[in-house]
Design a protein that fits this description.
GO terms for molecular function: dephospho-CoA kinase activity. The protein has 204 residues and is of the alpha/beta class. The protein contains 9 helices and 5 strands, in the order E-H-E-H-H-H-H-E-E-H-H-H-E-H. A 5-stranded parallel beta sheet has the order 2-3-1-4-5, with helices on both faces. Helix 3 packs antiparallel against helix 5.
């Protein structure tokens, strides 16, 4: 099965792009959403996180204390690496199970903000980076999350892999800059991936 990764920094519009692929009938694995689910439901991971970050990692109801964890790791690269080192392997296991459930699809998409940072790009056959300029991203995020300030947003963006680097590493770039139409870009790639999948099946 052809595996396509979609990545890009906060505010570029990865989710909108993935919804378009879903409308075309393509299964999409949202790594960020699944990571939250795994952190809530994987008992082994919950034990590991509690041991690593203390009892405050979960509240009395057994729910993940995201605010606490975010505060611990935000300005601490070592603790962030420790968190990712625990979470990413469990999400990888979840993705493997998900792949089995969608084995009949011509291709699948995995959406992940930390595609490169988590090394999950190595599992993909091709990578799409969604790009939007900084001013557009900030405008979108201020509208989406009015409790955040521009300084907050710039701080988050500053901790992510630079967009230029993501674009350089990608096989394809989708421009979601409010100037170029998204649907034609997605349709072009969809047809390309279908053709690649058909050719692979024929050659098998």
């Amino acid at each position: 099965m052809l595996k396509i990764g979609i990545t890009g920094g906060i505010g570029v519009g990865k989710t909108v792009v993935c919804r378009l692929f879903q409308l075309l009938g393509i299964p999409v694995y949202d790594a960020d959403t699944r990571a939250k689910w795994v952190m809530h439901h994987n008992q082994i991971l919950k034990k590991e996180l509690t041991e690593a970050f203390g009892a405050d990692a979960y509240n009395k109801a057994g729910e993940l204390n995201r605010t606490y964890l975010a505060g611990v790791v935000f300005n601490n690269p070592e603790r962030l690496a420790q968190l990712n080192g625990l979470v990413h392997p469990r999400v990888g296991e979840d993705f493997t199970d998900w792949l089995k459930a969608h084995a009949g699809a011509p291709y699948i998409i995995k959406e992940a903000a930390l595609m490169y940072e988590s090394e999950s790009w190595r599992q993909m056959d091709q990578i799409i980076t969604v790009y939007a300029p900084m001013d557009v991203r900030i405008k979108r995020l201020l509208q989406r999350d009015p409790h955040r300030t521009e300084a907050d947003i710039r701080a988050i963006i500053g901790k992510q892999l630079k967009e230029e680097e993501k674009m350089k590493r990608a096989d394809y770039v989708i421009y979601n800059d409010d100037k170029q139409l998204l649907i034609p870009q997605v349709l072009t790639l969809h047809e390309k991936f279908l053709a690649q999948s058909s050719a692979a099946t024929a050659g098998a």
